[in-house]
Amino acid sequence: MKIDLLVNKPQHIEDVAKMVYKEFVVPTSSKKTYEEVVEFFKRTYVNKFPITFIANVDGQCVGTVSVFENDWKERPQFKPWLASLFVEPSYRSQKIGFYLINALLEHMKKIGYTKVFLKTENAAVYYEKRGWERIETVLDEQGDRIDIFKYTLLNDENNY
After folding, report:
1. Among residues 28, 54, 66, 80, which one has the fewest Cβ atoms lying within 10 Å of its Cβ?
2. Using an 8 Å Cβ cutoff, are 37 and 17 in contact?
3. What is the pTM for the complete model shown?
4. What's the CA gap between 71 and 85, in Å, rounded?
5. What is the SS3 assignment for 51?
6. Mean pLDDT confidence for 63-72
7. What is the set of domains in the chain, with CATH numbers?
8. Is residue 127 within 8 Å of 118, Cβ to Cβ?
9. Do residues 98 and 114 lie in contact, with contact meaning Cβ atoms separated by under 8 Å?
10. Using one digit for the tens of pLDDT, what is the confidence trace for 25-60?
């Protein structure tokens, strides 16, 4: 398995768009089209947002994670945000998500960030076990619980 920036592997833009569209757009009330998601991922970068990583196994994109300047307009003071972590179901339980997140955190530290935030509706335990600090729990417009986490990037050893 190899982790790389999507900007270095543009042949996987549509793979990432399909994953994100199916997992994070379709189940919501978002009006974004698949084509808009593809266009979004055509504009990912190395040192400015959005930044997207992919996991590649034998030439196939099997997972992705991004960092956005802001992933929740209700909390503009928190930035940047880890977002859209997804691993294909047949590749789960192989630490691919762990390696994607680790690559993202190391990259953020390298380009000068000291904190990364995220929101999750159903994976609080996963992030708590990996050193993320829950800083807030709120209810969204539908009354669903959202946990907000912060990860502090240390200058020395990061034991993500």
Report:
1. 28
2. yes
3. 0.91
4. 12
5. strand
6. 93
7. 2-152 (3.40.630.30)
8. yes
9. no
10. 998 878 999 999 999 999 999 999 999 999 999 999
